[in-house]
Amino acid sequence: MSATTLPAPFAPTIFSPELAARFDKLVTLYPVRRSALVPMLLYAQDEIGYLSDSAIAEIAQRIGITELDVRNVLSYYSMLRTKPAGKFNVQVCTNISCMLRGGRELLEHCERRLGIGHKQVTPDGVFSLEEVECIGACSWAPAVQVNYDFHDNLTPEAMDAVLESYRAKANE
Amino acid sequence: MPTLVSHPEEVRIVSSRFGQGAAEIDRYLELGGYQSVRKAIDQGPDWIIAQMKASNLRGRGGAGFPTGMKWSFVPKQSAKPKYVLVNGDESEPGTCKDHLIFLHDPHAVIEGTIIAGLAIGAKMGFIYLRGEYRYLLKIMEKAIADAYAKGFLGKGIFGSQFDFEVVSQTGAGAYEVGEESALMESLEGKRGVPRIKPPFPAVVGLYGGPTVINNAETIATVPHIFRIGAEEYAKIGSERNGGTRLFCVSGHAARNGVYELPMGYNLKRLIYEVAGGIRDGRPLKAVVPGGSSTPVLLPNEIDIGLDFDQVGKAGSMLGSGGVVVLDDTVCMVDFALRTIAFYQHESCGWCIPCREGTDWLKKTLTRLHAGAGEMRDIDNVRYLAENMLGRTFCPLGDAAAMPTIAFVKKFRQEFEDHLDGKPCPHARHTVPELAAV
């Protein structure tokens, strides 16, 4: 548990200079470096789309633990992935509150619209689809998260508009 | 952005600054913010804890443990640093109250964290949000940075001799991390597997130091107690259940939303008056009163006060304040299956009764719901669930077992209606899933 003393800034890095700087700071915020692990994994995934071998290797080095340790932790958390998702990851909640307000129908609607199923990616790489557990928007159900953005009180028609807006973003 | 609702019978304390722009520090100060913490600095730890005890505030995460009592368990002298840990890993299905707190009143969370720190003699606090709440982390991080800039955090806060640091972060998707010891593991950069208790966190917690862990709503309530006075706060609620709480109404109510009501407020009245009754005037079939882990109540069981003791007496739990309303279109076998599918997905796999129990419950309920079940499957569901109870290190096993037992007990006929390939009168069948059984 003792804090190892690694030089900051850490170099060379596979991450952007901004993220690398953020990581340099993140490991100093906690009483032990390892506490930065879960946030670092999520930030790394946000930047490169998934946790690649090289990302895992660098994070392990930055914290001073083994790659196996990192993989052991990341496999626990459902938001972390080691394969790319779509540019826009559509996460449809079907847990009880959303289910009662049409969450499953919304998921089926997305499956038809996007032509993909759970944890699949569209051939153009723009969308991926996921059926997820409760996302904390129960009173505004059915709710969907696209990457980190919440969309509440959806209907199939409203969902189409949401998907269209992201398609337009992808074409920009 | 989530829509805010209101009703004349609400008593707005924790939600008093919702929709007021209080995420901006200057606005928070205008609205009387950061006054309670100054009072707490002047009066000292013994006074803070006495006030917290007098307020009758009980933990809003679900267990309902008296907050002042919890704080008083932290030893005064400790060789290791003490910590405050705010549990914003809101993940209990049906619950979305902390979502609004982080969105509308992040400084109340910071102020409550500092007061908790002063009470126990901690110099550092952590605010842990669930991974899905990334946009709320940004709001929280800005609020923390603004508080540092004003000298409310860091060295010599508010010009006193006290130092206090706050760090916020998110998880990365795991219901289990909402359990306090799993939360500490996650914050230490590990898998969110719970720890064996005792020792309790108040003695050996984060990094081995004494730690107070409170739900985000509990912490956000703390500054209000010192604003309005502990006795006054206690008076708002019912006996031994001080103050108000945020109730998240979801499902088939006409006006879903998060309402703040006094502890002990009548559940039936919440559904029929505050939330406008059942949508389209349909009959009520059942209510899950406090998040998915709390045993379901029948329509004739809901004329009760919403506090920890009264809901407990009715055979369920107040839980996390997630009131899920079900009308007569719901297939209870389907609903039970969806509930258990969640717990099966979220079980960390450490304790065998939970890991195997949730898996077998999901398989059996899938078969029953598909119309391929036998009479003994129904008994088996109950038998399995009853044998999970109290046999796991953390409450996740109980959280899966308790609602399951209630579904079978209270809706047995509906389970039997699914036998012999009879078509389910309500929901669609998930027959393809059966192939995986």
- What is the subunit organization of this protein? heterodimer
State mean pLDDT of chain B (0 to 100 scale).
95
- Total number of helices of chain B: 18
**Largest interface here, residues on each chain?**
A-B, 44 and 57 residues
Distance between the termini of chain A: 47 Å
Chain-averaged pLDDT of chain A:
95
* Percent of sequence in beta strands of chain A: 5-15%
* The number of domains of chain B: 3
Please compute the radius of gyration of chain A using only Cα atoms.
18 Å
Task: State the strand order across the main sheet of chain A.
Answer: 2-3-1-4-5
Order of helices and strands of chain A: HHHHEHHEEEEH
The CATH level-2 architecture of the largest domain in chain B is identified as 3-Layer(aba) Sandwich
- Unreliable segments of chain A (pLDDT under 50, ≥5 consecutive)? none
Brief account:
The complex is a heterodimer of chains A (172) and B (437). Chain A has 172 residues and is α+β, with helices and mostly antiparallel strands.
Task: Please provide a written account of the structure.
- The complex is a heterodimer of chains A (172) and B (437).
- Chain A has 172 residues and is an alpha+beta fold.
- Chain A folds into two domains: 58 residues; 84 residues, Glutaredoxin.
- Chain A is built from seven helices and five strands.
- Chain A is elongated.
- Chain B has 437 residues and is α/β, with parallel strands linked by helices.
- Chain B folds into three domains: 212 residues, NADH-ubiquinone oxidoreductase 51kDa subunit (Rossmann fold); 84 residues, Ubiquitin-like (UB roll); 104 residues, Up-down Bundle (de novo design (two linked rop proteins)).
- In chain B, the strands form three sheets. In chain B, strands 3-2-1-4 form a four-stranded parallel sheet, with helices on both faces. In chain B, strands 6-5-10-8 form a four-stranded mixed sheet, with no helix packed on it. A two-stranded antiparallel ribbon of chain B has the order 7-9.
- The longest helix of chain B is centred in the C-terminal third of the chain and has 18 residues.
- Classes of the chains: A alpha+beta (172), B alpha/beta (437).
